[in-house]
Design brief:
With about 280 residues, the protein is of the alpha/beta class. The protein contains twelve helices and nine strands. It has helices at about 1-35, 40-45, 65-70, 85-100, 110-120, 145, 180-185, 190-200, 205-210, 235-245, 260-265, 265-280; strands at about 50, 75-80, 105-110, 125-135, 160-165, 170-175, 205, 225-230, 250-255. One of its GO terms (molecular function) is hydrolase activity. It holds the Pfam family Abhydrolase_6.
C-alpha cells in the first residue's frame, strides 16, 4: 500500500510540474506577443501619402501606385490638380492638406512637383516631399524655365494650344499633347493600347500655369526624395539631376519615360515608402 501511495503521489507531482511548465510557456508566449504588440514602431500610424499628378494626366495615372501603397496599409489621397495656375493650384492643394490629420508624405509628378513645392511651405504635417520626374523650382522659377534650362525636351513641338478664358475672363491657352505624338512624347515605354486611352483622357494645362513663378519652395526646409526618369522627353534628365542636387535630395534613377508612375509603379512606390520610413 505504501509503495502504491508513493507511486501515486509521484505521478501527481510530475503531472502538476508538467502542467505548470506548459502554463509558464503559454504565459511567456502571451507576454512576448503583448510586448511585440506594444512595440512603438508597430504602433506608430503610417503617414498619409498624398499624390499630385502633373500636366496631360489625371489621378488615374497613380492607380498602380495606389494599389501597392494600400496593400502596404498606407492611407492614400490622389488629388485632382486643377492645372490652371501655379498660385491657384497650390492654394487648392494647401486646402486639401489642411483637411488631413497627422503626418503626410507629399508626392508630385511633373508639374505637380511645382505645386507641392509651393503648397507644403509652412505646413508642419508634411514630413517628406517626393518628386517623380518632376520640377523642383526655386523662388521665381517656372516649369517652362526649368524645362528649357538643359537640352533634350521635345514637348513644345507636340503641343496643341486651344484658346479659352480664365474664370476672371482673361484669355489663356489650354495646352494638349497631340494624340498622334502622345505615345512617343509622354509614355514611350507604356503599351500603346494604354497610351491611346491616356491621350484621349489627358487633362490640359494652361500656358499660364507652366509660366507661373514659384514662391519660396518647401524643399528648402522639408526633406526631399527625387526619382529621375532617364528617358524623359518632357523634363530633360539633366534638369532633373540639377534640381535634385540643388535641393540636396535623396536621389535615385530609373530607365523610364516621363510617365514614370504608369510605366514603373513599383519603383515609384519604393521611393515613396523609403521616404515614409525615413521620417516616421
Amino acid at each position: 500500500m505504501n509503495r502504491t501511495v508513493r507511486t501515486s503521489r509521484t505521478r501527481t507531482a510530475l503531472t502538476a510540474l508538467a502542467t505548470a511548465s506548459v502554463f509558464a510557456g503559454l504565459l511567456a508566449t502571451a507576454t512576448g506577443s503583448a510586448a511585440a504588440d506594444k512595440d512603438p514602431a508597430t504602433e506608430a500610424p503610417k503617414p498619409t501619402v498624398v499624390l499630385v499628378h502633373g500636366a496631360f494626366a489625371d489621378s488615374t495615372s497613380w492607380n498602380d501606385v495606389i494599389r501597392r501603397l494600400r496593400h502596404d496599409h498606407y492611407p492614400v489621397v490622389a488629388v485632382a490638380n486643377p492645372l490652371r495656375s501655379l498660385s491657384g493650384d497650390s492654394a487648392y492643394l494647401r486646402d486639401v492638406l489642411a483637411g488631413i490629420d497627422g503626418p503626410i508624405v507629399l508626392a508630385g509628378h511633373s508639374y505637380g512637383g511645382s505645386v507641392i513645392s509651393n503648397a507644403a511651405t509652412g505646413n508642419e504635417n508634411v514630413k517628406a516631399l517626393v518628386y517623380l520626374a518632376a520640377f523642383l523650382p526655386d523662388k521665381g522659377e517656372s516649369a517652362a524655365d526649368l524645362a528649357g534650362k538643359f537640352p533634350g525636351s521635345t514637348l513644345g513641338d507636340t503641343l496643341r494650344p486651344v484658346p479659352t478664358m480664365n474664370a476672371d475672363g482673361s484669355p489663356v491657352n489650354d495646352l494638349y499633347i497631340q494624340n498622334t505624338s502622345f505615345h512617343h512624347q509622354f509614355a514611350a515605354d507604356v503599351p500603346r493600347a494604354t497610351t491611346d486611352l491616356m491621350a484621349v483622357t489627358q487633362r490640359p494645362i494652361t500656358d499660364a500655369a507652366l509660366a507661373g513663378a514659384s514662391a519660396e519652395p518647401a524643399w528648402k526646409t522639408i526633406p526631399s526624395w527625387v526619382l529621375v526618369a532617364t528617358q524623359d522627353l518632357n523634363i530633360p534628365p539633366a534638369a532633373q539631376e540639377f534640381m535634385a542636387e540643388r535641393a540636396h535630395a535623396h536621389t535615385s534613377k530609373v530607365r523610364s519615360s516621363h510617365a514614370v508612375s504608369v510605366s514603373k509603379p513599383g519603383k515609384v512606390t519604393e521611393v515613396i515608402e523609403n521616404a515614409a520610413h525615413a521620417v516616421r
